[in-house]
Amino acid sequence: MIDMKDLPYDLKALAPTISPETMMYHYEKHYAGYVQKTNELIANTPFENAPLDKIIFESAADIVWAKLYNQAAQVANHEFFWNSLSPKKEDYTISPDLANLIQKDFGSKEKIMEELLNKGLSQFGSGWVWLTLYQDHLCVESTSNADTLLVHPEHKPLLVIDVWEHAYYLDYQNKRTAYLKAVTGKLLNWRFASQQLS
User: Fold this and answer.
1) Alpha carbon distances (Å) from 31 to 26, 82, 101, 135
2) C-beta separation of 85 from 98 below 8 A
3) Global pTM exceeds 0.85
4) Whole-number Å distance between alpha carbons of 193 and 132
5) Share of the chain above pLDDT 90, in %
6) DSSP letters along the chain, please?
7) With contact defined as beta carbons under 8 Å apart, do 143 and 171 qualify?
8) Beta-bridge partner residues of 137
9) pLDDT tens digit string along 65-101?
10) Which domains does the chain have, with CATH numbers?
11) How does pLDDT run across 26-51, given as a tens digit for each residue?
């Protein structure tokens, strides 16, 4: 059985960029639903007492477990997403190592934010936009629906942004551009990204 992880901040903490209502539905309904469904699917199976990462890796490799992979991957993606955001100004500081990579591969943090925006807008339907380290280079990548880069060890996730509509519809309706600009400009947890890098 897997457990829901606590948010690293209060439901109200990301307002006004992300409202308490959106966070409540996102965390208590959508994320909780993925956790519940994952637990239902692993009951009385070899995965029943397995940790989440093992469930994801092994279910991704076998089409028989596709439904389980989708649910478990959504749990992991959401947990990574909660940590990719922060209301604390001190979390917006970039470590020297990450700053050097940003300068080398993108030229500036603004260029990364622009690429995250563009990748998020070009993602057809639901999915996720990632800042990753791949072969010692920073990259911006996307995955569709429930797919996760966490099953690809060569792609090391640093940050992720949820571009499923439930992440922003109450606040921004269908304006994904406004949502992505607000999140990239105000909430990204660069301290978390720096920790993932190290």
Assistant:
1) 6, 11, 32, 31
2) no
3) yes
4) 9
5) 96
6) ---PPPPSS-TTTTTTTS-HHHHHIIIIIIIHHHHHHHHHHHTTSTTTT--HHHHHHHHHT-GGGHHHHHHHHHHHHHHHHHHHB-S-GGGGPPPHHHHHHHHHHTSSHHHHHHHHHHHHHHS-SSEEEEEEEETTEEEEEEEETT--GGG-TTEEEEEEEE-SGGGTHHHHTT-HHHHHHHHHHHTB-HHHHHHHH-
7) no
8) 134
9) 999 999 999 999 999 999 999 999 999 999 999 999 9
10) 20-84 (1.10.287.990), 89-197 (3.55.40.20)
11) 999 999 999 999 999 999 999 999 99
92 to 128, 190, 192, 194: CA distances (angstroms): 21, 5, 9, 10
Q: Which residues contact 80 (CB under 8 A, 6 or more apart)?
A: 150, 157, 160
Task: Give CA 156 to chain center in angstroms.
Answer: 13
Please give the Cα distance from 168 to 80 (Å, whole number): 17
- Report how far residue 181's alpha carbon sits from residue 160's, in angstroms, rounded to the nearest whole number: 14
Q: Which two tokens stand for residue 89?
A: 């100004």
Burial class (CB in 10 A: 0-12, 13-18, 19+), 22: buried
Give pLDDT, residue 25.
Answer: 97
